[in-house]
Structure formats: structure tokens, C-alpha cells
Amino acid sequence: MRRIVQTLFLILFTVLFFLAADPLPSFFPVDIFLRFDPLIALTTMLASRAIHAALFLSLVLVAATLLFGRFFCGWVCPLGTLIDFSRKIFPRRKKLPEENASAAQPKYYLLLALLACCLLGFNLAGWFDPIAFITRVYALLLYPFVFLLRNSGLDVLRPLAVKLQLATLSHAQFTQPLFYLNILTLLIFCGVLLLNFFAERFWCRNLCPLGALLCVFSRRGMFKRQVSDACNRCMKCHRECPMAAIPKEPEKTAAAECIQCLHCSHICPQSAISFKPALFSSPAGFTTAPDLSRRGIFLSLGAGALAAASLKTTPFTKLAGPRLIRPPGALPEKSFLAQCVRCGECMKVCLTNTLQPCLWESGLDGIWSPRVVPRRAGCDQNCSLCGQVCPTGAIRALPLEEKKSAKLGTAVIDRERCLVWAEDKLCLICDEQCPYNAIVFKWQDGVRRPFVVANKCNGCGFCEEKCPLRGESAIVVNPEGEIRLAEGSYQEAAKKLQLEFKEDPGSDKFLLEEKSGGASEREKAPPNPEAGAEKLPSGFSVK
Amino acid sequence: MKTTRREFIKKGLVLSGAIGAAPLLPLAAKTSFGSTGQSTLAMVTGDRAAATRKAIQMLGGMEAFVKKGSRVILKPNMSFPHGPERATNTSPEVVSTIARMCMDAGAKEVLVLDFPFNRPEPCLKLSGIAEMCKQIPNVYTFALTEEKFFHDIPVPRGKVITSVKIMKDILESDVLISIPTAKSHTTTGVSLGMKGLMGIMWDREYFHAKVDINQAIADLVSAVKVDLTVLDASRALLNGGPSGPGKIEKPNTIIAGRDLVAVDALGVTLADWYGQKFIGSQVKHIAAAHAMGLGTMDMNAIKILKAQV
Asked: Interface pTM (ipTM) of the complex?
């Protein structure tokens, strides 16, 4: 029964994950699992010191936990399910040591440290939150693997499709998403699963901070484990409880740890265990409070504060990422980092695969937060999906018109490397790619050279992506000029800054008139007897 | 000058004879014919679909190009995620008219292919080409954006390139019809039939970055046999090309011919590019192809059949 429910929720989670694509389903928010997560809600609001209405959905889970205990971990959590299922595949220690739930409680300390860190403005919860973690694993690993599999399958079928003259099948192809940090994410994910080696659900019982938070509400749960007099103290339940929630006195239960999996009641040879509704009464021998030492509490709070203090005092965070481009609609950096839970949903949904997880580019605490990597791909001007799926509003959900004004940065041409500037070649690719008409050609030293019109450049990065140079592009988007608004209209902000992002200005960009003061003396075209001829593409020979 | 269909068929037969007699090069099947003899072009003004149909009929009908059971590749411009009003992609009506004519002539299958610059889905969708061609059975529109769909071929006559990677489908097909849209180009001046052929190759950046692009285009043309070029000059992007936006004029003209150098040479005279008049010899890649004997840009050697629909 529980396996079926777990499977169904895992399927639901997986389906919702894959539905986070263009076009987004209108009937259901695809990030619903993340919004149900009270740890994400709590840490986001603490760190950003703001109320986020969308996250109040997590109160549903809090209420359900108050009513039914920590059922989420045993029945719903996709990571818990994967940990459960993988136990059959991964190696595990034959003889498990005797354990007591009260012995190891690092998850509470981790939760406290995270909360302390959040109070001081740094939100690291996304690293450990199971829903954010598993979403990230799906985005950075499963999603590209699925495409790899689909394309490999198509490649295998292709010769047959060609032979059978199935044109559509023989040309079918999916653009492969690629992600940085996939190997690191894979290692961590495998590590979490391999922890099963030491104990069943090792992650859940010892490390999961969401589990720890739910423990706070789960103790008063309605369904409580009750042991009848038929118990002959065979200790089977004590040995087999996946959460080590049954102490050596098997009639007792660590209520906070119990995930209502009902395993003990199924395996009890005496059928002495039942989970009956017991609304407000605590059955006899029921242990409740997790056994936290005062010293441990202070230590963990101190550790969180220390982490925040060191993040605040390292230049790394401030100086890192001179080329850090955030997704369109990303909040101002500090709020953005406080609200981003590193779930990777934005990277999954990104149409062009330009959104990639940061390693060091946004400082120590920015690992896995999304950045635009223009060399990988540009940001599609007709897409604002990343903001639509962001569960915490770290990337604002912008209508397309607003998104087009959310300037990401400004492209800068490296004249030492640009083929036209450095080698007088006839390249025009950046101009051809620019959807905003922000690249113009002016005559200089007898060659038409590309210039970036800064107030037209949206920072989308298609120029950088397509620059034909090997290695680094000769036209590079810098965060200079980016517009990051916590609230209010990007269109108005752009207007105030006298920016114009038009896809179709209708002007003739080639015959750009040199406005007074626009170009320096050096940049002006040399005098030419054949007036006008100089302004033509070099593919014409008019002599 | 009005001419009857019978006369056209006659002319078509004569022309076919001329092609047959043309000296064939070692890579005969994959190489453009030389510019021996007169190049005949059909130039039709009027409604673009009807003009396309008429122009091809004037060259002897689609049957002169597409044999029964053959596999045909159509290469329009559909490289930009723009609607037809931007004049950066070939008109969907022209492409679908040709696709239909191919099927009517007995083609087994028609593939409409391009290698778009931008994300393929919006290019296929916004250009309107996929939508219009979908309605014809056995006509498929694909954007090929993966290297595995391309294959290296030698360019024995190339002056600046020795090989080029082009779409495998072209190598595996019987007929290649190029359907460029008429537009300006910041580098090559104009982008017509020959420049449009860059859409069949994998490494376009190489042309832009490493070699003289004008000669490279001619080299590419020397290695690929284009059976028919239909220039969609129903509207022309006079500047701001190839991506636009720019000034759009409506020459309302379709030019069709076997000799793509001739098509381009005539096409360039249809409009004032960047506010100026040009002839074929003033466009470097056209002149380069002419010099290599891939066709003729000499208007005296080109016979133009004109009509209006």
C-alpha cells in the first residue's frame, strides 16, 4: 500500500517536472512540490525578510503533519522514495548496529544552523532541502539523460527509418541539454543513496533538515503507534524500523522520528502493533522530544552564524563572477540569493539551455544558483519561463513585454580578438544574430566595423553564443547595465534609462548616420571621392 | 512577349539537350553544369504562387526536373524566427507551390530543409513554411541542426576551400531545388540563390571567419548540383539584410532557371540594394562563380522569358 502511494507521488513529481516546459500547463503549478515545502518557505522568508504569499501553500503540509504525523517522509517525499527503492540495488552493511533514535540527531543541528544563517541573511537551505535537492538532481542529471536516451534510440533506429523511408523518424532529433556541475550533483546524489549502507534511510533519519522541521509538528500526530500486551519483546520492530524510531523498549516510540510507514505493524509476529487515532492523548511509554543537548543547540546556532559571518566577510562573494549574468527578472543580487533555493527548475525549463548552475561564479553561497551562460546559448527574447516556474519568486514571473525590458547586461566587443577589428575580415555574425538591432556597422579605416549600441543591447547574448572565434567569444556580455528590480515595471525602468529594446525598429542599421558626438574623430570614415560607395557591403565591387 | 506552352516545351527540350551535351566533370552527378550555351530564365510577375507555377511551366514544367519516384530537396530560406512580413524567409506560398508541383510531377517524397541560425522550432513555425507544406502528403519540413545530418564532400574545383560539409539528404536525393528569398546582405551585398546555398552547409562560420566568403560561396556552388533555382523576389529586403529589419520593396517577381548564376545576375537587377543599382558583375560572389564557369552573369548570354500572371 505504502509502496503504491510512494510510487504514485514519485510519478506525479516526475510528471510535473517534465511538464515544466514550453508551453507551461495552465491548470496546475508545476513547482507545487517545492511550494508545499515548509522548510523552503521558512528559510526564504527568514533570509529575505519578506512575506511570499505563494509559499503559504506549505502551511497545508504543516497542518497535515500536525494531524497525521511525519507521513510526508514515508509516503510522499520523492527523495525518500528513491532512497527506499534504491536500497534494493545499492550495497548495505549486513549487520546493522543497534541504534537509538535519540543518539544521533545531526539533522536538528543542521536545521538550527541553517535557520541561524538565514536569520543573518544567507540562505543555504537549498543545498540540503530534499525537494530542492531532488529537483536539482532531476534537472541536471535525469533531464539530460532522458534526452541522451531518446537521441541514442533515434540514432539506433535511424538506419531502419531511412530504409523504410520514414522521413519524420529519420530526421527526428532533440536538442540535447547540457549542464555544468552535473558530475558534482551526481556524486552527491549517489552519496546520499549510498549512505543507506550505514543504515536504512540514513539521510532521512540523520541529515534531512526538512524532516527535522516536520518533526517539530509531527509529535502530536493523530495516528500513534500503540503496542498491545501481546508484545513478547522479540525486538523485530526495534531492529527493522527504517527510522530507528523504536527504542529497546519496543512499546515506546520516538514520535518525532516515526514516519508512519506502518512497517512495524506489518512485520510484528504477534500482531501487537497498531496505528490508531489517538487525538490528544499520548499513549503510555511514548517518547516525544528529540534529545537535543543545550550545548549542541548553541554550537549549531553558532555554526550557522559563523557561516553567515564568513560569507559576509569574504571578498570572494563580492568579487566573484565579474561576468555573472542572472536570468531575466532575477531580483537584486542579495535578495536573489536569499530567495533562490537552487532547485534548478529554471534551468530545466530554459528554452535555450543558457541557464546553468554556478560553481564559484556568484560566490561561495551561490553554488547551483542559475546564471546565463551566453557562450552556451542566448536568452530567447520570447521566453520568460524561468520566472514562471521559480517557486520562491527569486526570478520574477514577468509577462513577455516586461521581460524584454529586463536587460541582462551589455555586450562588449573585444577589438583585439574580433575578426573584423583585428583582422579586417568580413564577419557579421553578431549583427545577424542580434534580435534587438543593437549592433551597427560604421566605417573606420576603410573597413566597416561592428559597434554595440549600449542602450539597445538587451544582454541576451546571442552574439556571444554565435561568435565564430574558437575559445572565448570576441563579443562578451557583461553585467554592466543590467536591470534588477525587486518590484515595479521593467519597461518603465528601461524608459527612464532611455533604453529601447525593439525587435523591429524599422530603421536602416547599415546606413547608420554618424550623429554628432557619436563617433570620435578617429572613427570617422576617411574622405572618399566616390560618395556612398564606402558605405556598401564589401561583397559589392563598384569600381 | 507572350509565348505558348508548346514553344516553351520545345525550348525546354533544346535546353535539356544542351545540358546533356555540356562537358561533364569527374564528379558529374554532384557538379553544376558549365556555362556553355545559353542560359534560359523565366521571369514572371504577379501573384507569387501563380507566378511560381507559371515560371516553372515556362521552363518545361516540373516534369523536366522531377522524374517519377524521385526524392526532392527544397531549400528555402527559413533561418529566422520571423513572419513573412519581414522578408527574411522565403514566402511560404512559393515553397508550398513548388512542393505541390514536385508531388504532381510524381516525386516520391519532398523534403524542405534548412539549417536555421536560431532555435529551429520558431523558425519553422513563424516562417509559415512548415504549416503550409504540412498540408501536402509526403512533403516534410525539417530544420537540421545536428552535425550528424551533414556529410563532408570534396570541392575539387575550390579555390579557397577543399571540402565542405553539406546535408546528407542532398547527397541521397535526386533533385535539389533552391528557393531563395531576395535580400540584402551586410557582407556579400546580396543574398540570392548562391548565398542562400550556405544554408545547406554545416560550418558557415568558417566561411565568414576564415576565408574570402565571396570566393567560398562560388566554391560551394561548384561542388553542389542545383537542378533548379526559383528566386522569390515577390518582395525584397533592400537593406538591413540578411536578418532585417530593413526596407522592403515588392518587385512581385519570380525568377526561375537552371543556371543559378544567371538567376542571381538577373535577380540583383530587380531592386536597388542599399539605394543603389547593381549588375551581376558588381557582386563579388556572382562574378567569382561566373569566372569559374559555374554559370553566366552575362546578360547577353541569358535568355529571359517574361510573363505576367
From this structure: 0.76
